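Appendix B. One record, verbatim.
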Amino acid sequence: MSNYKIPSIPIALLLGFFVYWSCNSPTGPSPGESFSHIFGDTKYDAGFAAVQTFDGGYLIGATTFSYGSGYADFWILKLDQFGNVQGNRVFGGADWDRLKAARQVSDAGFVLLGYTTVTAADNTDMWLIKTNSGTSREWHATYGGSGNEVGWDIRETFDGGYIMVGSTESTGAGGSDLWLVRTDFSGQELWSSTFGGSGYDAGMAVLQTADSGFVAAGVTASTGAGEMDGYLVRTDRVGVKLWSKTFGGSVEDSLFAL
């Protein structure tokens, strides 16, 4: 996998993604002030995550087709409080790598989650990257089997580890199941759990609860009232299901955030 820094980025370009911020905080700009910047190049570049960093700036997580060594790669940009680029970095290999989530963690570094193509098998694995506060990669890990796996959301746990949610085709009850993966602070898998039936099921968001259990939200086509329903799963601290509920009507409904 490559890990390099792009020399420079033009601010106004033909194609890219748009970051908009408006602040009415007493310590920030007065109401009505805002900034906007465009980042990208001539190919498809899309932002999927934005977090305010401990220093008052921002981290943007994206997938880029314009930069990197493959068809698509993880792309992160570190911005100051006014949206000016302080640093940016691309992670990926020769094939498809797509970022879905980015979070800042307690050591001021960042965790990035999505998927990477396993070239030999031509399938995808959930891919976790840990960086330091300067966005240089410290370590990375993949999770998956013989099918396709995708990571959609990640949170730091109370003990400094991580909980990830996404989908797996390698294990479970159906073609795709909602997948929870729990790791320690170094990305070593502690356990994983699948939830779903014979249809398409996937997790899009996850949180740790006050009792150290977990709750995951996503979609299910295995049960519920319609073609696809919002899906909420509650587990204990080791991923054993306590209950699940579906939400929706006769057509398609999804849950994307918690």
